[in-house]
Every structure is written in structure tokens, then in C-alpha cells.
Amino acid sequence: MDDAGNIWYYPAMMTLAQNILGAQNIPGAQNIPVWQLYGEDSPFPDLLHVERIVDRAAGLDWQIAAHRHLHLHQVFLILSGQLWLTVDGHSLTGQPSVLMNIPRGAVHGFRFSAGTDGYVLTLPAADFPEIFNPGAETAGRLAQPFVLPAPAGMEATFALIAAEHGRNGPLRRLKLRAGAISLCCAVAEVADPGAAVAASGDPRMVRFGALVRDRLAQGWQLADYAAALALSERHLRRLCQQETGLSAHAFIESIRLHEACRLLAYTRMRVQDVGFALGFEDPAYFARVFRRGTGMAPGQYRAKLERAA
Fold it and tell me: I need a labelling partner for 213 at 20 to 30 A (CA). Which of 92, 226, 263, 300 fits?
């Protein structure tokens, strides 16, 4: 496409977007929900998730209200129809074929024209450090939300990932990882960081999340994290509420639950050892916390994954 390097955003769309999504679609608004996949609270255990736009949007009357994902990065490919997007207070629109890049933590909502077709790829950022870690070559470009014309071949890449995602054959995880990395590299290559809508996330929250993952087994308290970030506890609580919509304690627990699901899904560690690895000294307490977050006991969660395999 001749304009493949242009990133589209139209402030004039703000009034329409606010009518569609509600005026509270701004970072830090406390009524913005935090989801795993949209409308779902429990972390999905697979390496990634891919689905067609119609699979979720059609059942929601082609409107998805403002929300955010704390741990998930999403890439959309719109093949037909039209979209209106609000992200971190900015309004964007585009007509096929376009890519949307939505980094974790960005507040976003959509309206699609009826019958819109395409894909959405969802990646747990912690499982793809080669893409999303601060030192990764792609990290800076993918840290920005944007809408841009899709490069040639993108539909085939999404289709291959979707086909492999639906299989349970040998090398599935390796093939999915390779496909996701290839796709994200293609998205990063065509992105223009200078023209992209500026991400509003505070880098201290990135460091906070990384510290939590690194120190889960060591029993750090909020005071320890605040000291490591050179912040007061009060400031860290306020920052966390503003950037994620969660209390600092809830943010830490969301990471702990996400890591528990990953260990149960991807390792053969005993359930009690998973709890110990995440700083739970009492297996019964770990089981209660896990059940509260997912609606099932850790053993039931793992058994459900094994039945689905």
C-alpha cells in the first residue's frame, strides 16, 4: 500500500467515540474494568490466544466498552468493515486492511461496523521476553498503541497462527511462539514510533511489575517494593491505582495469580511447590487464594487443562 507508513488518528472522532464508549475512557478512571480476555476474569493458560473478530464482537452488538489488560498485549488485523477505536484518551479509525497494536495497560474500546472480519492475537507479555522486555529490539515500537495499514502477507501469518492454535500436535508451542515472534517483528518493522500515539503508561509501573515477578518467592511487602523504586508507600499506592485501576495489593495478587496459572499449566511442579515458589507458606491458603481468583482449586485447574489437551 502506498501509505503503509502512515499512522491514522483523528481527534474529530472523539465525540463519536465518547457516545459509543462512554466519557470515562481515560487512564486512571476507576470505573474501567481490568480483564484477561474481554469479559473474562480467569487467566487463560495457553501460550497465546487467537480468535476471529466476529467470535467476540458479534455477540456484543459490535461494541466493546473501554477496558484494559494488565498482562496481555494484543494485535488486531481488520480485513473488512470499519472500526472506531479509543485508546488512552485518543481516537483512531481505519478501514481495511489495517493493524491495531494495543500494549498492555492501555485503556481501549471499540466499535466495529456489523460484519467486520479479522483476527485478534493476544500474548501474555511475560511469556515473550524476547519481544516485550525493556531491552528487546521490538519493545519500544510495540509499547505504543497505533492503527496503521497492514503490510502484505499479514492475513496469511494470522491464519497460520490460528490454524496451529486449534491443533494439539507435536511442536505446537514452538510453532506458536515462532509465529507470534515473526508477526510481532513484522508489526514492529512497519510501526513509526515518532508518529504513534504516545503511550501514557508510567515506566515505574513496568519496573514495579518486573520486581513483583522477581521477588514473589521472597515475601516482599509493599514497603520493600516502594523502597526499591525510591517511592513512598503512599505514592506507590496512588501510582498503581492511577495506572491500573487496582490497589497495589490487588496488582501484586493479579501477578501472583497469573504466575500460578502459568506454573500449573506449563510445569509438572506439585501444587504445593507452586505455592511455595510464589511465596505462600501454607498450601491451604494458596488453594483458597487460587480458588477465589479462578473459581476452582489448583488441582482442578490443572486437571481441566489436561482434559482439554
Answer: 300
Query: Does residue 270 lie in a domain region?
Result: yes
User: pLDDT (tens digit, 9 = 90+) per residue, 199-243?
Assistant: 445 778 878 888 888 888 888 999 999 999 999 999 999 998 887
Convert the pLDDT of each residue in 80-137 to its tens digit. Answer: 998 888 887 777 777 788 889 999 888 888 889 999 999 999 998 888 989 988 778 8
Within this chain, do residues 144 and 243 fall inside the same structural domain, yes or no? Answer: no
Same domain for 51 and 126? yes
Q: Is the distance from CB of 298 to CB of 290 less than 8 angstroms?
A: yes
Q: Name the grid cell of 97.
A: 486492511
Both 38 and 129 in one domain: the answer is yes
Rounded CA-CA distance 299/273 in Å is 12
Distances (CA, A) of 96 to 12, 56, 65, 73, 153: 20, 19, 21, 21, 14
104: domain range?
11-190
53 close to 116: Cβ distance less than 8 angstroms = yes
Of 161, 190, 219, the residue at which a domain comes to its end is: 190
Instruction: Based on the fold, state whether residues 150 and 220 are members of the same structural domain.
Output: no
118 and 78: one domain?
yes
Query: What contacts 24+ positions apart, CB below 8 Å, involve 229-237?
Result: 229/204, 231/204, 236/208
pLDDT band with cut points at 50, 70 and 90 for residue 52: very high
